[in-house]
């Protein structure tokens, strides 16, 4: 979906890119261009509107959020995506991160465990024309072994440790970005596959909602 120069949202996106992303050190021009193009306001509740471009995470219901624009950009930049890449996203949420990824790679598979968010994100992605995004409903901590290997994997929820299935579904040289740590404070971890070895690097401190599932946090009884 192309931005319209006369649209107010277009200028809000440009401001977001310049003041929240480029000014804070995001340097990948392809990532910046993708975030300039994707209409973030289409992936938030209708009453939010242009607040979607503010420098913060936003609630999308079901105790989930659409990540702060800077965090979306920082995680995407760490993946170092090529146009030919096949990418797995864990935690579809609003669908916004998948839309950004779709402009940078060949194909995106995205998994969401909450049915209402899965249906809403799938509809938003279809309406915006991101046809190379494939949505799935299920336990994202298991990955998608039937579609592996992936050139890159991104997890948009915090895990107590890097989920082993996601590492194993990386292609040779593939990159995995995931927030790791206890429930209320984490750091981004970049994992790079070298054969049977997995190089790990720490990146930005962050706070994400928990990844629930077999290889994530266990759901607490209500």
Topology:
Elements: H1 8-21, H2 29-37, E1 58-61, E2 64-66, H3 69-79, E3 86-90, H4 96-102, E4 107-112, H5 115-127, E5 133-137, E6 150-155, H6 164-168, E7 170-180, E8 186-194, E9 197-206
Parallel strand pairs: 3-4, 3-6, 4-5, 6-7
Antiparallel strand pairs: 1-2, 7-8, 8-9
Helix pairs in contact: 1-2
Would you give an account of this structure?
- With about 220 residues, this protein is α/β, with parallel strands linked by helices.
- The chain has a single domain, classed as Vaccinia Virus protein VP39 (Rossmann fold, 3-Layer(aba) Sandwich).
- About 25% of the residues lie in helices and about 25% in strands.
- The protein has 6 helices and 9 strands.
- The chain has helices at about 10-20, 30-35, 70-80, 95-100, 115-125, 165-170; strands at about 60, 65, 85-90, 105-110, 135, 150-155, 170-180, 185-195, 195-205.
- The strands form 2 sheets. Strands 5-4-3-6-7-8-9 form a 7-stranded mixed beta sheet.
- Helix 5 (about 115-125) links the parallel strand 4 (about 105-110) and strand 5.
- The protein is globular and about 50 Å long.
- The N and C termini lie far apart (about 40 Å).
- Mean pLDDT is about 95; it is low at about 1-5.
Summarize the structure.
This protein has 222 residues and is α/β, with parallel strands linked by helices.
Attribute tags:
alpha/beta; disordered N terminus; 6 helices; seven-stranded mixed β-sheet; 222 residues; two-stranded antiparallel sheet; Rossmann fold
Task: Please identify, by name, the CATH architecture.
Answer: 3-Layer(aba) Sandwich
What is the makeup of the main sheet?
7 strands, mixed
What is the residue-mean pLDDT, rounded to a whole number? 94
CATH class: Alpha Beta
The CATH superfamily label reads Vaccinia Virus protein VP39
How many domains comprise the coordinates?
1
Give the uncertain stretches in residue-range form: 1-6
Adjacency order of strands in the biggest sheet: 5-4-3-6-7-8-9
**Number of separate helices:** 6
Overall geometric form:
globular
Distance between the termini: 41 Å
Q: What structural class is derived from the secondary structure elements?
A: alpha/beta
Q: Provide the succession of SSEs.
A: HHEEHEHEHEEHEEE
> What do we call the CATH topology?
Rossmann fold
- How much of the polypeptide forms β-strand, as a percent range? 25-35%
Query: How many E-type strands?
Result: 9
Q: Specify the helix fraction band.
A: 25-40%
Computed Rg: 16 Å
